[in-house]
Amino acid sequence: MAKDLLLEVGLEEVPAKYVSASIEQLTQRVQTFLDDLKLEYVSIEGMGTPRRFAVIVKGLQEQQADSVIVHKGPAKKIACDEAGNWTKAAVGFVSGKGLSVDDIYFEDIKGVEYVHVKQHISGEATEQLLPGLKDVIMSMTFPIAMTWGKHTFRYIRPIHWLIAQFGNTTIPFDILGVHTGTTTRGHRFLGHDTVVLSADEYESALAKEFVIVNLNARKAMIREQIQQLAAQNHWVVDIDEDLLEEVTNIVEYPTAFYGTFDEKYLAVPDEVLITTMKEHQRYFYVKSAQGQLLPFFISVRNGNEQHLQNVAKGNEKVLVARLEDALFFTNEDAKIKVETAVKKLDNVNFHVKIGSIAQKMANVGQIVSILGEALEVDVTAAQEAAKIYKFDLVTNMVGEFPELQGIMGEKYALAQGYPAGVAQAIREHYLPLSAEGALPESLAGSVLSLADKIDSLISFFKIGMVPTGSNDPYALRRSAIGIVRLLETNDWAIDLDELFSLLLNDVYGVDYDNQQSLLEQLHLFMVARVQQRLQVDHVRHDIIQSALEIDVFSVPFIIENAHELQNHTNDETFKETIEAMTRVVNLFDKSFEIEFELKPFDVSLAQTKSEVALHEAVEAIEDVTYETYVQLTPYITAFFEDNMVFVDDETIRNNRLCLISDAAQLILYYADPTKIVK
Prior knowledge:
alpha+beta, three-stranded antiparallel β-sheet, 5 domains, Alpha-Beta Plaits
């Protein structure tokens, strides 16, 4: 037989951004709890609102299934004496399991017979096990937590009620004096406390009390209401999924409505209007069929349709106050020349130990020029942008809306006649904003973004501010990941180690003694980001290490090689190929134990055809790929079958070592095969 389980944790209001993750965590922990107890069920579903986390388990069996545990005991020679009688070791082993020597049987393990017994365990009643849900609830972890009353226990918000119903039976336990019961709470203002006797009636009982507890149902309800308002008014609403998720986790009973604002505020840049509505007010903006912003918005209240006009007016009033500020900032910023704003950056610190924003811009300008030469690309627009690209930091608008930095820079630069390519680079230099975020679309934006991130990295490392553990206050890991993505996407095969060395010397004036330590830190930090990038693609750890162990730290080259190696790991010849390459590299490493002059292989000293064949195969290779490894394998195999390297004749030995060196350096240019698990 089976019953349904309902678990609900009632809380004070939880911040919207933690609701979905907390529900998911509780659901996963309940699932793990049931699975560990080997309790079978049909389905499990999490649901909740800002005031409750809930889990419903359908078809939970009333009894654990009986189980059999096989125990391995002592070896037969220890369990039996010479006469074949059971020893104390055997008797003690089985009695400890509640069994007798009659239950013993033997199994052979690697040629040795061992005592085994089967212990039959009757399953416990599910109802007796479910009080363990208390520990499930209390084991949850959160980004933020608090204590309440005189308790030291920490939770995301104080717990006010608990429900744990198995069928119609209440599972008894308490958390900090709050006992499980059958009473849940309805909407804070519209609903009442209500009794829920079983999981079957949970959703419907709460719906009567103005709580839509199913998160997906609540989200669908909001989406449908927004779409209905848009259709009724012939609007277009691009429903932002992140905003929809947030609003869903703010309300328990959603009702969408619309409001309006004066058309004069449409003079404010669209990005400012959208940011004000979306980020600050949690409103959905409205467009015409032609894609133009309209002076309307859609919001969602936590309640029903009563007094909806008053609610709309209140929301309009709050929005207009913000838009009035935005309009004022727009007009005031229009009076500021870009050049004037740039001069102010002399007095704006990037970091107290590093210098001003103006100094950072000067560094970035030099890096842009160096990148232009190294990458052989036209950086004219990027150089022009580097002279001004941070100017919007001192504008009124960015002061009020920091998330618009770069965006406003582009708009103000265009308004004052700067070329579109320069303006675009100003906006794009912040990209990517995350590990998967959008990248710059223009060459100038890509170069400027790369230069800016490199400067941040070197500047902070130079003053000893290297991220440790989870501590990364200046988001240097994000900058480094951005560097990796920019280099990979644009296929810029620049050697980062050489670039950093050049910059430390020419831009940052670091003396040679301090350079080496700094270069090592920068190298290891960037290596870790490349590893992270490849781990996202599920590239094997040993393959990653192999691709990284090359002399040239070229990000796109390393990433391409790692992917190529990974793609061939299931080839029938992969093991043979890597073993052949490894043999060459190991012998190359061993050659350093011998004093000999490394020089070109002398064909006239070759004593076998396989020596010459390997030499010619190495010489013929122009571009090293995995296919190069495959092509070299038969030549290497033949070489080792026909030749001893460490022969008594030093001339022959050294010549063969030179050939091995030539082959090994070719192999190691692509990857280090010795790191690969065969």
